[in-house]
Amino acid sequence: GESVGLHLPTLSVQEGDNSIINCAYSNSASDYFIWYKQESGKGPQFIIDIRSNMDKRQGQRVTVLLNKTVKHLSLQIAATQPGDSAVYFCAVMDSSYKLIFGSGTRLLVRP
Amino acid sequence: KAGVTQTPRYLIKTRGQQVTLSCSPISGHRSVSWYQQTPGQGLQFLFEYFSETQRNKGNFPGRFSGRQFSNSRSEMNVSTLELGDSALYLCASSPDPLAGGPENEQFFGPGTRLTVL
Fold first, then answer.
1. What average pLDDT does this structure show over B30-49?
2. What are the b/e assignments for A75-96, b being 16+ CB within 10 Å?
3. Per-residue model confidence as pLDDT tens digits over B16-37
4. Which residues numbered 10-69 in B keep a CB inside 8 Å of some CB on A?
């Protein structure tokens, strides 16, 4: 079945810098990918998604890049702010339409 | 529009007991999915209900069950609780995860923190 892995359990960045969080998936047939943000005491919050027919998608201060050749997904956050501190999960929808989550990367923003 | 609500927010039970958790989806959403979140295993899919039918199921023992009512509200039940069932149980609603585009977005509730002693 599908598996999803994140490259770093923790990422520390300086406020104002850009952050890049990476994710790898196993199934080359995967079609739909999502990034979630989870703050302490809250459920995951949708950030941005991308389908396999796209390589890049941009939102407000966030960009998701999809490299289907190496089965890699990344989330870029521009001008990282203290409010961006959270755990970030990538999720892949498998062939039976359930979400498979990565283990999460904790983003720490240094003032 | 109100978000996904889950009750109770916190629960303490002892081994062998059973527990029922409740989830009210966003108005108009017909799909409800349940996830278990633990530090060791991360977020794991339990099951998904759509129009009162279980449409998808994860790899959890039969002690974990759920149901959905005609108003789309959902409950999950865990019987014969074990220490390892201690977790944050999250509910997510969407119009229909099988639809394409924005309809795929799942909105999560705050979760129910279950502690088994």
1. 92
2. bbbeebeeebbbbbbbbbbbee
3. 999 999 999 999 899 999 999 9
4. 33, 35, 42-45, 48, 56, 58
